[in-house]
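Example with several molecule types.
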Amino acid sequence: MATHDIFMPALSSTMTEGKIVEWLKQPGEKVNRGDSVLVVESDKADMDVESFHDGYLAAVLMPAGSSAPVGETIGLIVENEEEIAAAQAKAPSSPAPSVAAIAEPSNTETKDIANDHANEVVPSQVSPPSINPVEATNVPATLNDGRVVASPRAKKLASQMGVDLATVRGSGPHGRVQAEDVQRAKGQPISVPWIAESDRPAVIQESQPSSKNGSLHRVKSDESLIGKSFGKPGETTSFNTLQQAVNRSMEASLDVPCFRVGYKICTDKLDLLYKEVKPQGVTMTALLAKAVGRTLARHPQVNATYSNSGISYPSQVNVAIAVAMEDGGLITPVLKNADTTDLFGLSQQWSDLVKRARNKQLQPDEYSTGTFTLSNLGMFGVDRFDAILPPGTGAILAVAAAQPTVVAGQDGSIAVKRQMQVNLTADHRVIYGADGAAFLRDLADLIETKPESLMT
Amino acid sequence: MDKQFHSITPAPVHNGKIVNSSHLAKPFKTFIFEPTDLVPIEQSWDWQQEWQKMLLADPLGPQALWLLQHENCYTLGQGANESNLLFDLENPPAKIYRINRGGEVTQHLPGQLVAYLVLDLKRYQTDLDWYLRQLEETLIDVLKLLDLVGERIEGLTGLWIEGKKVASIGIGGRRWITQHGLALNINCDLSGFSQIVPCGIRGKEVARLDYWIPGLKVSDVQPLIRRSFVERFDLNLTC
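Resulting structure tokens for the full complex:
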């Protein structure tokens, strides 16, 4: 039996709770995917909330006129008519998860919810009927004013994993407990990085049919499985095609004499610019790719690559960006002509590339023609890392998180600035230390002093 | 597109010309309609419903903006409280409509410029609070062009001048595609507002712009609001 929760959607980044104006469907009524089920109000805005399952509205947990915290389960949808009674029986009789347990949605999370369901307003997911949403919110309060401040997902995970939220240290805004904190508390590895804007695993087409000993062991995506794992404990899982390809590349890179050089870049101006252009659909990925592309155009040596006949200078500046794949391996979709394409175009291209990667539609020239690679783990808050050079290119830039840092100026003044560490890995046969360093200096100069020039 | 518009709206209404200019990228492609006659609520509501339906079916479809004036009537949001209507419900002074927007009761009538927007917020920010604030910013832009200073009051969506309410805002949406918008009082008769509690806010005065700029007419403000919308929402008017 599958029960689908209807959650109170986040209609804005500042919304903590929403009012249910009206249930457009009544318990027991048939619901088709895409039907509006209820109307939610926040300030002067009403939004229809749709079902994205075919089935029956089994239970209304919060009546019209009441308010519920964002992320709260407010109704249940079941697939078959026979399941209605069972779902109703399991539903909490009093619709009263304390409003005191409101989690303050962070900007990012709200965005994730919206992105996850670009076409559907309400986040909803399969949830085993044994998980009672009310239990999850009744975890003992721990924080200063006695409220549980945890994301809905963190609460859910905590109840699934048997973690007492009271023991978890929150890393979110105002000490809010995030899903990752629960995982960390349980000693579970955090899921593999996923590029900032892409919210969903892309699945890449196998470049060749899997042979009998190379068969894939894909682990079904399951809410209760937290860390990344491609097999079960005790077994050995063969590499999938993409993983094999990555293995070959990484081993080949051992033959390349690499060196690394790092730089700290202040991002305050870039962040401001980003805020300004974000409403127009420009992504941070596009901004970084463009900054790198522009700088590469002025440093052709760093865009060059080793070949048997000498140093090969590509005719284009194509910035590849590493993206981890949900079912193993990684792929590097390419933003072609990143130096000359406008930000809007780059943003569109990137979302298109990620979408098509998801739909298994990437052509080889869309992930193999990079002349330079970006790898970004900033969204995990890492302060620095270094990357392995992909064969066929001369350099890769590892980008860490921008973090507020106390910075001393030349004149002895002290200021707090947002700083990110970048680390260039380069093939010394083509790129020398001075080349790499000059490239980083110019990249830093562009980002720190004139990011607005990226708009032109 | 214009043809399709007419086919879904067999209306006894002249549509103003569609403004053309070109410089911006495709995702914000938008049609602007400026009917010259007074528009009944049912009509403009139909237009928006149809346009929203079309955008739901075609995620890359064009957006729409209407700038118009209504016949005298009252509208209530879906969750509106009828106790804010101070007249006899059996015998109302004008027609009453309950429509699919947020917010309490307000009045529409000639001399008030109404803007309805069917925008896909996925092309901007999927954030209704952001959108409400942008509508307020648009109004502030318009007032600035008139040398007036528009104010916001925290927690009271709408626009104010010297503590008096000059514009109301109320929106609805489905899958981040908006409906409804704002109403700006320019030289309308305000006596009808005394028969309601506008937007459910007691103790705040309602005002119109010609109080500050005598002789101001809707036709003076309409080009300014059109321009402000185009700039703030990057509306691309290319056909």
